[in-house]
Amino acid sequence: MQFLLRLVARLPLPLLHAVGAFLGWVVYLLAPRYRKMIARNLQGAGLGSVRLRAAVVCETGKGALEIPAIWLRPHEGVAGLVVKASGWEHVESAAKARKGLILLTPHLGCWEISGQYIASRMPITVMYAPPNLKILEPLMRAGRDRGAAMNSVPADMRGVRAMLKALRRGEAIGILPDQVPGVGEGEWAEFFGRPAYTMTLVARLAEQTGSPVLLCYSKRLAWGRGYMFEIEPLLAPRPPESAVRTLNRSLERIIGRCPEQYLWSYNRYKVPAGVQPPGG
């Protein structure tokens, strides 16, 4: 498996994306549960057009096949795939406060390259959940933790403590804000019109440290031309809405810019074990 992934990583990005789009359709046609999840999530968000669904299938396939290249190519070459960046002035402004920085990278575009691009410019500690295929975890850790700029920590209390220490050193941390948390680690908040169990970790870390929060993503450009990195602050809260609803509303805004590149196959609306369903 590792040998095959290393071969895939050597392919040029335009070819990776072309093959990924094809494989995306293969999986879509052969996996009814996967197909239904995409359709249900898009329709629930009011984005049920056939054209958009077709684009989602292609982009999801591209996203899966580009990961070996992001993990296994030299770090400098990976960061160089970001051909355009905007909003870095928000990072520079936040750094002046020396209170650390919380960077949120949702499942939009290529979130793996967002971390690599940030790590090429500043140290960052990122939280991760082990992949379903255990054989991929060593590759993922090796691909992320190249050099001293990026440090991956597990999604547990040990990881939370490591991120707190990084913030108190004035460093950046990275979190996937649309990952469904475990029992006691989230609250129900609207996300594209439906209740989604949303992590409270971001708000708790910001409150404890005074660290500013920024939202970033790397949009996949057509024809394998690379990625466009964008970073910006969260939207201002609308009292009396909760911090997690403000977070979800901010996510809705950036997802709306390129909805075809969001991971609609992810079960964002699941009820974690031990969590009371919304309205229950």
Order of helices and strands: HHHHHEHEHEHEHEEEHEEH
Distance between the termini: 44 Å
Low-confidence runs: none
On the 0-100 scale, what is the average pLDDT?
Answer: 92
Number of strands: 9
Oligomer: single chain
Specify the biggest β-sheet. Answer: 7 strands, mixed
- Proportion in β-strands: 15-25%
The rough form would be described as globular
Rg over alpha carbons: 18 Å
The structural class is alpha/beta
Instruction: Tell me the strand order in the biggest sheet.
Output: 1-9-8-2-5-3-4
Helix tally equals: 11
Helix content: 40-55%
Commentary on this structure:
The chain has 280 residues and is α/β, with parallel strands linked by helices. The chain has helices at 2-9, 13-30, 32-44, 50-72, 75-79, 88-95, 111-119, 137-144, 157-168, 201-209, 243-255, and strands at 82-86, 101-104, 124-128, 150-154, 172-175, 186-191, 194-199, 213-220, 227-233. It has a seven-stranded mixed sheet with strand order 1-9-8-2-5-3-4, sandwiched between helices. A two-stranded antiparallel ribbon has the order 6-7. Strand 8 (213-220) and strand 9 (227-233) form a beta hairpin. It is globular and about 45 Å long. The termini are far apart. The model has no long low-confidence stretch (mean pLDDT 92).
